[in-house]
């Protein structure tokens, strides 16, 4: 027994001595395999690394550049220059013929502005913001390849601040639309436009928020918020994903200085496509109309109405003779869903109703006097006077 113990002790001593020498002379032998693989990659010996690790190296390198997305989208983004005649009030002294002899009779001046646009059809249709081309007498478009052309307004939709213009310059490269339902907060996006007139510029950021509304910018609001730098001149430009597909049209920024503060807003591609197709087809956008004045349901209102959750739109007023009036909707009702889609607030209600076709009959679920009721409402046509 004593002999076995001596053999064990000697073996252990020799093993510890070997381990001690190995840690000093060849420390890499004792590192875990994963760490050795990383060191091997770092030293450039990719061929000796396992296939799975080597395959991940190009993927990690690819996300360091978005040049592919930029080069795919940039040819479809144009610069827009507009001008219009502005008449200023004439000083009383200019009524004197002697003064008019030297200063002339023309009180008109030309004001110019700039913006951006996105080619959405190879037939020359370009989408931009309504405020970029509104009231313009002359519209000039500068294409990415250096060509310039005069454009005409096909139609505009002030409620979403979108407009479609057209140039006749042969076949143009249209942008591809992204699937808006797949866009998520945190996704990387690129903003392409003509800030301050310096020329086509690409900036990068992320999607900061989705579904921003009640900002007082447009009648219908469902903005993408992004921190990609957007400045004056970017209006009407493209917001694209990392594949170069259009996710939105840059429309506005939150700023106290006129420059970017990291809060920009873009109109979603789904809205852009809907408005664009309607304008190209009919020259205008036709929307559904209910004829109510609504407000959000706050937790206090929900408690007073004995509603389980604070959601829906409280009907504060009904226009006489409107579709709502004819169908029996009353002030004090809480609209919970339209055509099977739940309503979270008054803004969502406005958007849901506007998406319906005039003369279409839609079921509306309401909460009245503690009870759930459903009414069939024949949707009307949104009056033009209601547009801003």
UniProtKB/TrEMBL annotation:
- Catalytic residues? 131, 161, 235
Query: A Gene Ontology biological process annotation?
Result: proteolysis
Q: Does the keyword Ribonucleoprotein apply?
A: no
The answer to whether the entry has keyword Phosphoprotein is no
For this UniProt entry, the molecular function terms from Gene Ontology, in alphabetical order, are: serine-type endopeptidase activity
Q: SMART domains attached here?
A: PDZ (SM00228)
Residues that hold substrate according to the record: 131, 161, 233-235
Question: Where does the source fall among the domains of life?
Answer: Bacteria
Q: Which Pfam families match?
A: PDZ_2 (PF13180), Trypsin_2 (PF13365)
Q: Where is the PDZ domain?
A: 279-347
EC numbers, comma separated: 3.4.21.-
What are the UniProt keywords, alphabetically? Hydrolase, Protease, Repeat, Serine protease, Signal
Checking PROSITE patterns in the record gives: PDZ
PANTHER family with a match to the protein in the record: PEPTIDASE S12 (PTHR43343), PROTEASE DO-LIKE 8, CHLOROPLASTIC (PTHR43343:SF3)
The family note in this entry says: Belongs to the peptidase S1C family.
Question: NCBIfam families from the entry?
Answer: degP_htrA_DO
Protein name, per record:
Serine protease DegQ
What organism does this protein naturally occur in? Silvimonas terrae
């Amino acid at each position: 027994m004593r002999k076995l113990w001596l053999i064990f002790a000697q073996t252990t001593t020799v093993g510890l001595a070997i381990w001690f020498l190995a840690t000093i002379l060849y420390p890499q032998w004792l590192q875990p395999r994963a760490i050795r693989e990383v060191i091997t990659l770092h030293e450039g010996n990719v061929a000796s690394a396992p296939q799975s690790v080597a395959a991940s190296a190009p993927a990690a390198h690819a996300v360091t550049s978005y040049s592919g997305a930029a080069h795919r989208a940039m040819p479809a983004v144009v610069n827009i220059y507009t001008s219009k005649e502005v008449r200023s009030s004439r000083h009383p002294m200019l009524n004197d013929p002697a003064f008019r002899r030297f200063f002339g009779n023309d009180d008109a001046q030309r004001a110019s502005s700039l913006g951006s646009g996105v080619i959405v059809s190879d037939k020359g249709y370009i989408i931009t913001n309504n405020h970029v081309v509104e009231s313009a007498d002359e519209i000039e478009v500068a294409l990415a390849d250096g060509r310039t052309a005069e454009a005409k307004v096909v139609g505009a939709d002030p409620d979403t601040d979108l407009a479609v213009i057209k140039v006749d310059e042969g076949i143009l490269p249209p942008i591809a639309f992204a699937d808006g339902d797949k866009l998520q907060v945190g996704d990387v996006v690129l903003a392409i436009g003509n800030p301050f007139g310096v020329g086509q510029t690409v900036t990068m950021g992320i999607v900061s928020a989705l579904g921003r509304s009640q900002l007082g910018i447009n009648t219908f609001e469902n903005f993408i918020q992004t921190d990609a730098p957007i400045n004056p001149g970017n209006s009407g430009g493209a917001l694209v994903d990392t594949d170069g597909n259009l996710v939105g049209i840059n429309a506005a920024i939150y700023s106290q200085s006129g420059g970017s503060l990291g809060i920009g807003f873009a109109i979603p591609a789904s809205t852009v496509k809907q408005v664009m197709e309607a304008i190209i087809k009919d020259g205008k956008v036709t929307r559904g109309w209910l004829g109510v004045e609504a407000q959000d349901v706050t937790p206090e209102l929900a408690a007073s109405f004995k509603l389980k959750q604070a959601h829906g739109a409280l009907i504060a007023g009904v226009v006489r003779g409107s579709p709502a009036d004819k169908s029996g909707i009353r002030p004090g009702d809480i609209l919970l869903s339209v055509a099977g889609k739940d309503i979270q607030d008054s803004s969502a209600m406005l958007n849901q109703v506007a998406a319906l076709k005039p003369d279409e009959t839609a079921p509306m679920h309401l909460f009245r006097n503690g009870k759930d009721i459903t009414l069939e409402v024949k949707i009307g046509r949104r009056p033009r006077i209601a547009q801003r």
